[in-house]
Amino acid sequence: MQPDYFTADYDVENMHVNMNKHYILEEALKLNLPKKIVPIPHKITLPKINLATAIDTSKYNDLQNKVLSKFQDIIDTHNETNEEELLAYEQEIFLELVKDPKTIEKLKVIVG
Known about the structure:
Largest sheet: 2 strands, antiparallel
């Protein structure tokens, strides 16, 4: 048996390389590796800015200004937040905005 130069060069033992593309996923699933849990940052510090003056809104339509206003409300009432709260705000704002026929028209243009 020929020596395995890769194993020797990289000091890797018990290495198995599968070159058959039809069995790679099957072998990977057999490894049963522990799931990696990625920590979500607990706090997101919100900047203390006025979005209407920080962004050129001169070409914004009513819908865009309404969304900007909702973002400003979040910034004005919270120093910091987290991803969970931001998702809740997003849902709340979306449900409020879809009551406006202009929002439905815009969604139809985007979604088709």
